[in-house]
Amino acid sequence: QVQLAESGGGLVQAGDSLRLSCAASGRTASLDYMGWFRQAPGKERDLVASLRRRTTDIYYRDSVKGRFTISRDNGGNTVYLQMNSLTPEDTGVYYCAGQSVGSLRWEYWGQGTQVTVSS
């Protein structure tokens, strides 16, 4: 099993920046992809950004390209989401997720961290 723990959310104003962190523990060697999802009030949970731990593969949702940056530490067990130029549309609960090698679904989830951007 893998445990994921997010931190770094908060209340900011439009135009501000935040950095989210996700620390993975447990059987982290089994992890292939790690990503960040966002769930806005009344909406579905959408993938915002993801990376593959052992390659340079990175994905960004169109709405965050050029503003958000996903990265990991050298050990690959901590993933960050640097969010710049935040807008009220970025408001939501941000979840860290993990996908095992060979899996087709996101199996591991953190508890979520709230990000609120005021106009």
Describe the fold and architecture.
The chain has strands at 2-7, 10-13, 18-26, 31-39, 45-52, 58-60, 68-72, 78-83, 92-100, 108-109, 113-118. The radius of gyration is 13 Å and the shape is globular. The chain is mostly beta strands and 119 residues long. 0% of the residues lie in helices and 56% in strands. Strands 2, 4, 5, 6, 9, 10 and 11 form a seven-stranded mixed β-sheet that branches. A four-stranded antiparallel β-sheet has the order 1-3-8-7, with no helix packed on it. A hairpin with a 5-residue loop joins strand 7 and strand 8. The model has no long low-confidence stretch (mean pLDDT 96). It is built from no helices and eleven strands.
Overall, the morphology is globular
Q: Please mark out the parts with pLDDT under 50 across 5 or more consecutive residues, or reply none.
A: none
Order of helices and strands: EEEEEEEEEEE
Return the average pLDDT rounded to an integer: 96
Indicate the multimeric state. single chain
Percent of residues in helices comes to under 10%
Tags for this model:
119 residues; mainly beta; 7-stranded mixed beta sheet; 4-stranded antiparallel beta sheet; 11 strands
Chain-wise SSE layout:
Blueprint: E1 2-7, E2 10-13, E3 18-26, E4 31-39, E5 45-52, E6 58-60, E7 68-72, E8 78-83, E9 92-100, E10 108-109, E11 113-118
Parallel strand pairs: 2-11
Antiparallel strand pairs: 1-3, 3-8, 4-5, 4-9, 5-6, 7-8, 9-10, 9-11
In short:
This protein is mostly beta strands.
